[in-house]
Amino acid sequence: MKLKILVLSLFMSMSMFAQDYILDSITPKYGHLINFEANTFQYASESPAFKKFFADLDSIYMGKKKKMHIFHIGGSHIQADIYSNKIRTYLQNMNDVSLGQRGFVYPFHLAHTNNPLNYRIEADNDKWQGYRCSVKKDSVTWGLSGVSAAFRGREDQIYAKANYKNYTKKPYTFNKLRVFYNTWMEDYNLDILDSTLVVTDTINYDGMYKEFRFNKTVDAAVLNLKMTDTTCVSPEFLLMGMEFMNDDPGIEYTTIGVNGASFAWYDRSVYFEKQLQLYKPDMFIISVGTNDAYMPTAEFDANAFRAYYESFIQIIQRANPDCAILLTVPNDDYYQKRIPNPNTAVQQRIIVELTKKYNMAVWDLFSVMGGLGSSNNWYKAKLMPRDRIHFTKLGYSIKADLFLKAMVDAWAEATHRDKDVLLTHFKNLNE
Fold it and tell me: What is the pLDDT of residue 36?
């Protein structure tokens, strides 16, 4: 119950919290808590993949009509999509031509868990049952999202809105909609309620989705889900995600997050790699790790963590060998609110070693926060709640701006730009 109250309070407060750059204004009060020297994309300058990524990013910044796709995977920090949405907003508001498609989302409400505020997908929730890869007792088919919602009734309507409480200068629109589900079952018909909107609809059985193409761009659509045969025994429609698509240039920033998820839990998503193969990520941010190490020191298996992490890197590289992969060290946390968790320091060493091995980059949030035990200081400053795992609204906003600053510094170095001029551009996006 306490966790539900925490999540609810975070979402209520974030709805009134703007996306302005705040790192400068908070430094006098909170700067002593932050190791600014550690706030870098370490080893990015030595990575050919990051040199290419920053060159492409720079071309969009200059107004070139180009598409890029960034993935960001994690646990509850990413499912909530608070700090990651602030990063998305920065990137997608860079200039007048850079607002890319909203892209892949998951209707968490239908799975009876917290949904990001920036989009809305609704139906009769009482008719849906949610399953998460991070819940041991759950056992269904999962894909890229690591979450599935099952419908077993006769009929329902799904209202999909690409915009809700977001901060983009222009609202997201789409002229294509993909719905990912168990296409190997034919228990239900899935259609757009307004048939006059649809030009074509096709099913991709290998990618496990149905794609609707529209005759105009919209910001919302209503889907009708209906059982094909009312005499069907044990019917099931398993919703694995949606994707709002268009032809606009810019940056698509896809977040994949499941509360409580670890590498071992994501490993249960048997169609994760198959659906990732539909894309060619330009950058992939790995923020998995907190739940892998949230246990007594004697129970943490460092070798297993390394193996899972390395295997996941290889999955990304199979999707795109040239992908810039950013490894992130988890934030400091307290185990059961009582003691600093030393397992994160072990993870830090492993993640840095893998960064060097695969010639990628690392953002070491553990060090940025101040290392072992620092989450207690952030808690005392009201930047983290009592669990010392998550962040408050201000804490998440600081985290996003620290990420932006580290990215801009690496970007400026790769493209020989003035980093202060580049950062000032983002600071002024909402002015």
Answer: 98
Residue 135 burial by CB count (10 A; 0-12/13-18/19+): exposed, middle or buried? middle
Residues sharing a CB contact under 8 Å with residue 331, sequence separation 6 or more, in sequence order:
290, 344, 365, 366, 369, 375, 389, 391, 399
Distances (CA, A) of 320 to 44, 323, 348, 361, 388: 18, 5, 25, 16, 36
232: which residues sit within 8 A by CB, 6+ positions away? 187
Supply the DSSP symbol for 37. Answer: G
End-to-end CA distance of the chain: 39
Strands 120-122, 334-335: pairing is unpaired
DSSP one-letter string for 80-99: HTSHHHHHHHHHHTSSTT-B
CA 103/CA 107 separation, integer angstroms: 13
Report the distance separating Cα 25 and Cα 316, nearest Å: 37
Is a pLDDT exceeding 60 seen at residue 5? no
Contacts of 133 (CB under 8 A, 6+ apart): 142, 146, 147, 258, 261, 265, 266, 268, 269
- pLDDT score, position 18: 55
> Which residue in this structure is represented by tokens 């400068």?
24
Predicted TM-score of the model (pTM): 0.93
Residues 346, 385, 368, 332: what is their CA dihedral angle, to the nearest 10 degrees? -10
Instruction: Provide the H-helix boundaries in 96-146.
Output: none
- Of 430, 271, 284, 261, nearest in space to 361 by CA: 284
State how far Cα 111 lies from the chain centre: 17
* Backbone angles phi and psi of 21, in degrees to 5: -70, 125
Over the stretch 186-196, which tens digit does the pLDDT of each residue have?
999 999 999 99
Residue 350, classed as helix, strand or coil, is helix
Contact 73, 286 (CB under 8 A): yes
Of all residues in the chain, what percent carry a pLDDT higher than 70? 95
Q: Is 332 helix (H, G, I), strand (E, B) or coil?
A: coil
Burial of residue 118 (number of CB atoms within 10 Å: 0-12, 13-18, 19+)? buried
Confidence of residue 80 (pLDDT cuts 50, 70, 90): very high
